[in-house]
Design goal:
This protein has about 90 residues and is α+β, with helices and mostly antiparallel strands. It contains 2 helices and 3 strands.
Length: about 90
């Protein structure tokens, strides 16, 4: 196979937007995370997880919300499967 290479200017680079739109839950969480102060801890009972897969999914939603808000969070799960979120910044 032979490749054809073209040298172009940086302004001529064409790109496509990749990725997914954030879920409504993540956007709602991001708004809440913005109102929290550093060191504050909150439990979200609606995101209770019974299985490892649910913990993974719910943890991803929580981290997505934190990323949208520009915040860092720590997640610890209670024995009942309730996420306990600590604001790190």
């Amino acid at each position: 196979m032979k490749f054809t290479f073209e040298t172009i200017e940086e302004t001529q680079v064409e790109t496509l937007s990749r990725g997914r739109q954030p879920s409504e839950s993540a956007v709602e969480l991001s708004q809440f995370f913005n109102s929290m102060s550093k060191g504050q801890v909150v439990r979200i009972v609606e995101l209770t997880a019974e299985t490892k897969e649910e913990k993974t999914t719910n943890g991803n939603v929580i981290r997505s919300g934190a990323k949208i808000a520009g915040r860092k969070v720590g997640i610890r799960w209670s024995p009942a499967g309730i996420p306990q979120i600590t604001m790190k910044n």
